[in-house]
Design brief:
Elements (H helix, E strand, L loop, with lengths): L2 H11 L3 E6 L10 H14 L3 E8 L13 E5 L3
Parallel strand pairs: 1-2
Antiparallel strand pairs: 2-3
Helix pairs in contact: 1-2
């Protein structure tokens, strides 16, 4: 993903930040998370935007009684 372009678009639209998903075929691929998340955070900070939430599905999804995949969300608040 082009983090600089995303950050500029978010700023132009007037949003205070972004929510990122760490999943296959989403914003951040799991295997690139260690590299891409700090880069995304820095590009957003450079434009005065924040990353509000990071959601991810574990690499080996666990099914619950409902049959849905287990996922985790981290919310970042000020």
């Amino acid at each position: 993903m082009e983090w600089q372009r995303l950050a500029q678009n978010v700023k132009q639209l007037g949003f205070g930040g972004v929510d990122l998903k760490v999943r296959p075929s989403e914003h951040v691929l799991l295997e690139r998370a260690a590299e891409d998340l700090p880069n995304a955070a820095q590009k957003n900070l450079d434009t005065g935007r924040l990353i509000h939430r990071i959601s991810f599905i574990e690499q080996s999804p666990v099914t619950l009684n409902s049959g849905k995949r287990q996922h985790s969300t981290f919310s970042i608040s000020q």
